[in-house]
Specification:
Helices cover about 35% and strands about 20% of the residues. It contains five helices and five strands. A five-stranded mixed sheet has the order 1-2-5-3-4. Helix 3 packs parallel to helix 4.
């Protein structure tokens, strides 16, 4: 004798399979209690370590105010901390190379954001909404042959 299943019998099965699984992010810290991340922007690459502390930010062995003298660059650097309301709670140590100061500030910001999400995974939603976890892919366009620069033509001469 075969037993037939009705729609009411299938309802619990359908509810279990159709619900999307929420990805669980876990805390990733090393033996010293630091979270590590790499941030990139243009040609600049930043290695960032984040740990609990009074809020000191060090870039290439210097204080961030001495390294990034322009207030705009200091503001870019602190954006993830301000957005997540964590300023003054983390010590940040960065080494950054390549590119100019603006690209380096963007790379450090990207690295701080990723390192914060590895230290406190619950901050991911706030930082993702602010756009800090996305790597800005804009880079310098390459020079083409037959051109003076990437797009500029040589000066036209009628005679």
């Amino acid at each position: 004798m075969s037993e037939t299943m009705t729609l009411e019998d299938l309802a619990p099965l359908k509810a279990e399979t159709s619900a999307p699984q929420a990805r669980v992010y876990e805390k990733k810290v090393d033996a010293q209690g630091r979270a590590y991340a790499t941030g990139k922007r243009k040609d600049a690459v930043a290695r960032v370590w984040v740990k609990r502390g009074p809020g000191k930010i060090t870039v290439n062995g210097k204080d961030h105010v001495a390294y990034f003298a322009r207030p705009v660059l200091q503001m870019i650097l602190k954006q993830p901390l301000v957005t997540s309301k964590r300023e003054g709670q983390f010590d940040i140590v960065c080494t950054v190379s390549g590119g100019g100061l603006s690209g380096q500030a963007g790379a450090v910001r990207h690295g701080i954001s990723i390192a914060l999400t590895r230290y406190e995974p619950e901050l991911r939603g706030v930082l993702k909404k602010g756009g800090f976890l996305t790597r800005d892919a804009r880079t310098v366009e390459r020079k083409k042959y037959g051109r003076a620069k990437a797009r500029r033509s040589f000066q036209f001469s009628k005679r």
